[in-house]
Amino acid sequence: MKLSLDWIGDFVEFTDNSPQTIADKISVHTAEVDEVEQQGAALEKCCIGKVLTVEKHLNADKLSLCEVETDQGTKRVVCGGTNLREGMHVAFAHIGARVKWHGKEVMTLTKTKIRGETSEGMICAAEELGLESLFPECTGKSIIDLDGERKKLEVKHKNSVGMSLREFFNLTDTILHVDNHAITHRPDLFSHTGFARECIAIGMAKWKKEPLYNLPKLPKSKLPFTIHVEDSHTVPRYLGCTLHIENAPATPDWMKKRLEATGWRSHGLAIDITNYVTMEVGMPLHSFDLADIKGNIQIRGAAKGESIRTLDDIERPLPEGAIVMSDNHGIFDLLGIMGGLRSSTKESTTDIFLHAAVVDRKAIRRTILATGHRTDAATVYEKGIPHITAEQGFARALELFLVCAPKTKITSELHSWGENGTAPAIPLSPDRVHSLLGIEVPQKTIDSTLESLGCTVKKNTVSPPLWRPDLRTEPDLIEEIGRIVGYSTIPPQSPVAPCSLPKSDHRTRALRARLKECGYTELLPSSILGPKLLTQCKMDPKQAPELANAFGEDESLLQPSTLPQLLVHAQKYAPLSKRAYAVFTVGHVFTEKHAEHEECGLLFSSTVEDGVKEHALLQLKQHLLHTHKTLEILPSTDIPACAHSGQCADLTTGDTLLGHLFLVHPHITRTFDLPENTAAAYFHVNALLAEDTIQKTVKPLPVYPAITYDETVTRTHTDSVQKLLQNITKQSSLLQHIDITNLYEGKPLKKGQYNLTLRFTYRAEDRTLREEDVKKEHAKVMKLLS
Questions:
Q1: pLDDT at residue 426 in the model
Q2: What burial class does residue 605 get, using C-beta atoms within 10 Å of its C-beta: 0-12 exposed, 13-18 middle, 19+ buried?
Q3: Thinking of the domain 707-785, which architecture would CATH place it in?
Q4: 81-90, 125-134, 229-238: range with highest mean pLDDT
Q5: Does the domain formed by 227-417 have CATH 3.50.40.10?
Q6: Cα separation of 637 and 651, whole Å?
Q7: Spatial separation of the C-alpha atoms in residues 331 and 339, rounded to whole Å
Q8: Where does 41-168 sit in CATH, by number?
Q9: How far apart are CA 499 and CA 495, in angstroms?
Q10: Number of other CB atoms surrounding residue 399 within 10 Å
Q11: pLDDT tens-digit map of 47-61
Q12: CATH class in words for 426-488
């Protein structure tokens, strides 16, 4: 956004007139100033020259030799201008001036020879000095003809030859280029009056003329049409009336100058006034040729397939729901973005319909994205224009019409709807200011700062001005206090809170390490999922807590179990695994019934199915027992989701149920394209570690050798192997441990039978055992197996 300091100077008087100082303070307190542009800087070492003589160049048909009178005497110049003549007043650039050669590359002029003739400067065309907007016809082979401009200023400048071009064109303004990104929440700052208020609040200026815009007295005549709005929420504030302009004069030079300084081109008085109000007040307006409005007006959403030919003479298809204005002949305005070509004001226009409309910023944003068409008006509209700004901008536009075209008559009543709104009363505590800013701000400073921003302060209650819709809560006000007082006044202070790392639970780390020893890979999936995934896992989505502000349906719930995310991972990566697929995760789970807790989930899948030994359920069981020695595996009393009802067990320690171990249900394995030989387990981590109270001691490696026996016995699935092993270990003090080395079922065994191979390890801690001693002990054990 471009700001004119001269324009702001209409309202305020700066305490320091240094443009760089003003820019620096604005950058520190309000928004970053990217560039400080001195208007007319390109005209340094350029003056008005008078052509004394014009001769043909002897060595070039298209060039002329001229003598030009300047402020540094008469200069001999080679020039190719086709409109060159004696007595002509021209824009002359001295040696050392920086010009754009044919409007492109910037170069510094030097004394040179052109086709054998010396040239001591340059007679310039408009594009070579950046004056195309003032002299659109003086480009290319045509040089700038200043005779017309001199006649306008003849009274003031009787002898203008040699006068600086910067002084002649009055290009003495300073333009600040402000970064829009810092003010996207401040629609009031897309205007010169908004920045005038900021300069007052910052303390670098005083009011010269505070902007107060009041509507003039309007006649009682009705509009020649009715205006119907389809949905008042899309256009909550609207003002409009008709005007008659007789013999519309040209746009005043002062208005043109300011518009051009801030990046606008002049298009005629009516359009220039609306653009001027946009830059001064921050309210984009639009003027229509009244003769082009056929019948009553509807403000509505565009239907599918509709289009509009906009002011730039492009036919634009409209997205469904774009806010438009239409009459009996169709759409004539894309509200808040660009007017239609059919209803635009022209040089011949004498009757105008002028309006100011506040349009829903979400609708504007959707239309910008759908059409890819962004305008200056749309950029302001999508920020959310305050309702009061519409009234102020409309009043200012009427004032300018009456001033710039004195014969203008307002020919209808004010047609309006909506209100300017009421300011909220926000409580503000000095203690809260201190708490958030970290410094003591005196009450007087708080009050004066907020009042300088236009707020009304009464007994620790603040009412912001209507042009500041961004001020709604106490932190908003405190941010303003900190911004205006200056964040540089807040001394840097190191945090007082301890920065030491939290105490680490080594038991959880050990649990992870043991699982990795068994070949498991740890995953870190998201704890957020959707109802579709839970349904696929035979889980009830209603049992999972719902997020209040979810990104979408697939990320709307907190996980009630770690298994769904493991299954999603397995579906993608298990087929790529050449060996058994083994993964685990430790994450937080959430349910409506139970408190949040940490859960460890495991998934084991194997495509190898060589008898019972390679069964995934038994392998996962073995891994769990390696993870925690006190873990007990008992027949399941409750079948969890995802589990095969016939192959499920409870994971317990003491009397505490920790979780479940099971073969994944065939329906689930088919849903996720997994082998049927897939097992899963999950358990409550904190509950498991709470039972881990065994004192850890270091034991030396065994000194004496062990004696082992392998025995195979036939069992049935109705017999508990766990109870058998518990009884066997009580039979001998020399029996160190028992391992299950093999399982077999099949011919010649009967159905329901299987062979169980056990390895018995005997060892004494004080001597080498003899075979005779071990045989006696082993005989006791075998009695239980017979």
A1: 93
A2: buried
A3: 2-Layer Sandwich (3.30)
A4: 229-238
A5: yes
A6: 11
A7: 10
A8: 2.40.50.140
A9: 8
A10: 16
A11: 999 999 998 888 888
A12: alpha beta
